[in-house]
């Protein structure tokens, strides 16, 4: 598992590139130290608008469409993967209570539609903050 990329995966880089191309600026691998979220990081964060984006791998976070389960050591893997999902939900809940919006993107999602979802949340947060939503022309 130590050889598994934790950050900078292809789906994450593609989403970052698309958001950057659309004029969005963000922080990468943002560490949350408040709200009981020690040792938790979001892949892409818009700090001013309080939007955290997580790009979840299908295997590690049990994608309902593409999850696979190892045949060897099944009990250990079942507990490990269930713990990942439980931690994801806990992170979502704690960030929500702290006033953050959370966007979870599966690694298999099309980059354009994932970026559209992120921008939709960003625009909603801008409007709620009293700012005019961005209009980006192609």
TL;DR of this structure?
This protein has helices spanning 10-21, 74-97, 111-128; strands spanning 27-32, 40-46, 51-56, 101-106. It is α+β, with helices and mostly antiparallel strands.
Word description of this protein:
The chain is α+β, with helices and mostly antiparallel strands. It has a domain at 53-109 and 118-128: VSR Endonuclease (Endonuclease, Chain A). It is built from 3 helices and 4 strands, in the order αβββαβα. The chain has helices at 10-21, 74-97, 111-128; strands at residues 27-32, 40-46, 51-56, 101-106. Strands 1-2-3-4 form a 4-stranded mixed beta sheet, with helices on both faces. A hairpin with a 4-residue loop joins β2 (40-46) and β3 (51-56). α1 (10-21) crosses α3 (111-128). It is globular, with a radius of gyration of 16 Å.
- What's the arrangement of strands in the largest beta sheet? 1-2-3-4
Assigned CATH superfamily of the domain at 53-109 and 118-128: VSR Endonuclease
Task: Note the total helix count.
Answer: 3
Mean pLDDT: 87
CATH architecture of the domain at 53-109 and 118-128: 3-Layer(aba) Sandwich
CATH topology of the domain at 53-109 and 118-128: Endonuclease, Chain A
List the SSEs and their pairings:
Layout (H helix, E strand, L loop, with lengths): L9 H12 L5 E6 L7 E7 L4 E6 L17 H24 L3 E6 L4 H18 L10
Parallel strand pairs: 3-4
Antiparallel strand pairs: 1-2, 2-3
Helix pairs in contact: 1-3
């Amino acid at each position: 598992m130590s050889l598994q990329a934790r950050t900078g995966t292809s789906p994450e880089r593609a989403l970052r590139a698309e958001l950057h191309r659309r004029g969005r600026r963000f922080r990468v691998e943002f560490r949350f130290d408040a709200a009981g979220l020690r040792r938790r990081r979001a892949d892409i964060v818009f700090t001013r608008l309080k939007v955290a984006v997580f790009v979840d791998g299908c295997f590690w976070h049990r994608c309902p469409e593409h999850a696979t389960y190892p045949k060897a050591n099944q009990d250990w893997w079942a507990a490990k993967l269930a713990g990942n999902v439980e931690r994801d939900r806990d992170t979502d809940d704690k960030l929500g209570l702290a006033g953050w919006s959370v966007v979870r993107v599966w690694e298999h999602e099309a980059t354009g539609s994932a970026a559209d979802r992120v921008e939709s949340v960003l625009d909603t947060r801008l409007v709620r903050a009293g700012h005019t939503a961005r209009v980006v022309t192609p």
